Amino acid sequence: MHVDARIQQSVVANLSARPLPVRCGPFVVGLDPAIEHPGINYATPVPGAPISGADVTALVAAFRSYGRKPRLEYVVSSAPGLEELLLAAGFAVEERHEYLVCTPGSLAVPPAPDGYELREPATDADRAALVTAQHAAFGADTIAAEADVARVRRLQGNGGVAVMVVAPDGTCAGGGQAVPPHDGVSEVAGIAVRKPHRRRGVAGAMTAEITRRLFAGGGELAWLEASGEDSWRVYERVGYRPAGRRLYIALD
């Protein structure tokens, strides 16, 4: 199976494991009733399924019925013509990303920076610290809610990976995770480092450690997206290589 199809099928599986998965024609909508963020609640097409304008209309209605913003993320090649249908229905492109992939043979694991510890969160207090650090790194001055903690706990319980970075002063400097693998494929996401701890090799070490743990558990292919040139270089240094394109698109 082509890597694009494998990545897209892994997204379908990930959304199908949400607390409230909804199948809507050729789409799977992954919903979490406890979290309203559109980055958690979105849809993706089933690879190769034919899609019509009527299917898009039904998808929008499904999102509205659950009080969520209609939004999709998908590998572009998995649904030719879908973008045109969505634009005709009033959707607007949020972002276009090139995704990168890593295999056990390409992974390079650097040592953790001096004084920093990389470990899996073992308690709910750890999980809250991880998510709070992610929020801070992404510019949100909010602490983790119980729903956030439950999401990380569920991810770990289902075979995913979460890693937190403990700074020399004992605080959580950042964190990230990988979703439970599907057919050997998993997305690495949420890589975040608080500003005072950046440019020390923390992000690269954390990304590599998450990926290493994923492969140690039987994963075959890890993928992620870079938010800019700096993160792109970080991921390439630990063995990730560009492989395909994804689209983020939503209806206000």
TrEMBL record:
PROSITE patterns: GNAT (PS51186). InterPro entries: Acyl_CoA_acyltransferase, GNAT_dom. It comes from the Bacteria. Residues 116-252 form the N-acetyltransferase domain. This is N-acetyltransferase domain-containing protein. It comes from Paractinoplanes deccanensis.
